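To whoever is on call:

I kicked off a structure prediction for a single chain this morning and the downstream step that reads the tokens threw a length-mismatch warning. I double-checked the sequence; it's 200 residues and nothing unusual in it as far as I can see. Pasting both halves so you can look.
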Amino acid sequence: MSGTEWVVMFDVDGGVADLSAFTHLLTEHSGGSRRQGWQRFFDRVGEAAVVESGRDVVEAVAGLGFVVVYSTTRPVSYAGRTRLWLRENGFPPGRALLCRNRDDHRGAVEVKAGHCRAAGSWLSAFVDDEPESVTALRSRGVRAHSFGELCGLGVRDVRAALADGTQGRGAGRGVPRPGRRGHGGAAPHHGRGTVAHGVG
């Protein structure tokens, strides 16, 4: 990445994709294990509804020149279907799609925090739909925002929130402005997380 490429990472499920119509598959006991229930659920990722306000936020951020990266706790085996869904639904192409590694049974917040570590000092923000996840990520030192905080802002205010380190309506850590290196010019740290390049 060049010195002007700052990453904004977006959570997929709940933020831009709505799979709530299929959550009953996780609790149905029509034979099979819990793992099979999750498989039935993830098999429907291509039928997710678009969260329009989330797509608006991604489009606004991409229009500001930030590098879009998508993050999901879906297993990496669903990366292809997720990329196809993003492309078919008109989302800005992302530099990468970060997924859950095979045999990774950590909680969602830990997976997301790992994705943030993979972006290293290039990460400007992680945007999630759940305020609880935003709070948990912030407690781990991640510059996190909620979709709800950003979707009501104009383009200028979104730029300020991401570039100046404000966290929507709350206080937050400073974030380096696009165009200059932060954290002493440290190189990105590549942590755990499976990357599927060429999203969109």
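Update from on-call: the warning came from a stale cache, not from the record. Cleared it. Sanity check on the structure: The longest strand covers residues 67-75.
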